[in-house]
Design a protein that fits this description.
Structural class: mainly alpha
Helix content: 55-70%
Shape: rod-shaped
Order of helices and strands: HEEH
Oligomer: single chain
């Protein structure tokens, strides 16, 4: 079987794939970041993760806030 790959579309598709993956990852993490900031946390946005911190609060409120921050990504 003779397989011929057209190089130009192959390169364009690979570049597009990597650009979309990078943009979507940052957009997803920005959702977590945005919700955390809206809830009053100090959030930091990284490429593959978002971190947030705040002082000691009521445990029930903290668990609910973490749930909301988790939902903020999708």
């Amino acid at each position: 079987m003779n397989l011929k790959i057209d190089l130009k579309p192959f390169i364009y598709l690979n570049i597009a794939f990597f650009v979309v993956v990078i943009v979507e990852t940052v957009a997803h993490e920005f959702g977590h970041y945005l919700v955390a900031e809206m809830l009053g946390y100090h959030a930091r946005l990284h490429f593959g993760s978002t971190t947030w911190s705040r002082g000691v609060l009521d445990t029930e409120v903290v668990e609910w806030n973490h749930f909301l921050i988790t939902l903020g990504g999708p």
